[in-house]
């Protein structure tokens, strides 16, 4: 499917609460309510906030964003009330550094979904 746009799906018990978080805190652009999902856009990717039956947040990362300045984004989100996950991987409890120099920080959205921010030591591709 190389060359085709990716569409991301975010499950939510409370789609309006999730929309407020994804647009107000994370800065996604709201596009429309299409009757099936609340549609947002992030960096050219469509993000659909959906309400599945029997939704249970999973223990793995659902979405992630690559950012140029991880520390600045962490500080911005902390100021907006976001709490970062401490998986015991770091000294500061926030950003983990992989052996290749990539750095990652995780937090949960309003629905309990695990999401991440990352800064790569080398450009992908």
From TrEMBL:
Entries under SUPFAM superfamilies matching the protein: Glyoxalase/Bleomycin resistance protein/Dihydroxybiphenyl dioxygenase (SSF54593)
Pfam families the UniProt entry points to: Glyoxalase (PF00903)
Domain VOC: from-to ranges: 3-120
Descriptive protein name: VOC domain-containing protein
Organism for this UniProt entry: Demequina mangrovi
